[in-house]
Structure formats: C-alpha cells, structure tokens
Design brief:
It contains 6 helices and 2 strands. It is mainly alpha-helical and about 190 residues long. Strands 1-2 form a two-stranded antiparallel ribbon.
C-alpha cells in the first residue's frame, strides 16, 4: 500500500504541473492561436454585460436552455421547438467570486491526489495479472481514456457542446493519465499486490 500512496503523491504532483502547463501557459497565452480548439471562447463585451445584468438576481447553479419541460403535451412541443430552433446553451453560474486562489489550487491538488489514489488502488488489484511495466502503464492510461471518453462524450452528445473545446480537454486529461500511468506502473508491481 505504501507504493500506492507514494505513487499517488508523485502522480498528483506531475498532474498538477501538467495542469499548470496546459491551463496557465497554453490556454492563457495561446487561445488566439488555437482557434476552434481553444478551451473557452470569450463573449463580446456587450453580450457579457447584458448576460450578467440579466442573471444578477439568479441563484448559483447550472442553467440549461431550452430547459426540458415535458409536464404537458403543450410544454413538450414548446421545448422541442425551442431545441429545433436553437440556440442550445448551458451556463454554470456562481454568485460568489474567487478571492482565495490558493484554496482552489489546494482543492485541485487534492482532487488529483484522490484520482491518482483510485487509479493506483485499481492497479494494485489488477497488478498480479499484469506482469510488465508497459502493460501496467497501459492499464492506467486505458482507465483514464475510458473515463475521458465517457465523461466528455456525454457533453458532446447530450449537451451539443463544441467538439473543439472537448478535444482540448481530452488532451489535458490524457496527458494527466499518461503521467499517472508511468509513475504508478513503475511503482506498483505484481509482487507488491
């Protein structure tokens, strides 16, 4: 178990560093060069201002347009017509700002550490059947790829999200899982399971 814990800590450190490269350098400085594959698009100033004004009295939450309402046949038809006419929109809205960046970084690191620990624990269970380091690395990467496809694919299919944005996220996630796979695959051996 000590190798799972050590591997989780080292993996989380590498994942956090990878996140800094992807979000702090690439996304923050190269968005204009990434075109469609940028992680987020900026709204024109007048649109941003009007959206903020319109939502100022709303509570924090996820907002969906058109919001599916199938309570009556009339509402169902109205929802379907709105969906057909477009646009389709999801807004994640929080009434609170962020004034403690270090707390957010700490929570983000804890999230990566817990994810790496889960990956390491699963690898430890499977390790007796996975003899080579390359196979153990591939096992962790395959678990990461499975999670990435399931989670990101859902948003593309059901929420009609732009595939370019999710391509960027997929590269970020897979980079994280490759790093975790290398560390965990090297540290967690069949004889330690």
């Amino acid at each position: 178990m000590i190798r799972v814990i050590l591997g989780s800590i080292l993996s989380a450190i590498l994942m956090f560093a990878w996140g800094f490269v992807v979000w702090g350098i690439v996304a923050a400085t190269m968005s204009d060069k990434l075109g469609r594959f940028t992680p987020y698009q900026s709204l024109p100033q007048e649109v941003e201002t009007s959206m903020l004004d319109a939502m100022k009295d709303s509570s924090s939450g996820m907002y969906l347009y058109p919001n599916p309402d199938f309570s009556t046949e009339e509402k169902k038809n109205e929802t379907k017509q709105k969906a057909a006419d477009g646009p389709f929109m999801i807004v994640a809205y929080s009434t609170q700002g962020e004034d403690n960046e270090m707390m957010t970084y700490g929570i983000g690191f804890a999230h990566m550490l817990f994810t790496a620990f889960l990956l390491g624990s699963l690898l430890r269970i499977a390790a007796p059947a996975i003899k080579s380091i390359g196979s153990r690395v591939s096992f962790v990467i395959a678990m990461g790829l499975t999670m990435t496809v399931f989670i990101l694919g859902r948003d593309i299919i059901w929420y009609h999200q732009d595939i370019g944005h999710y391509f960027f996220l997929a590269v970020y996630y897979l980079g994280s899982f490759i790093m975790a796979g290398i560390v965990l695959g090297a540290l967690i051996r069949p004889e330690d399971a």
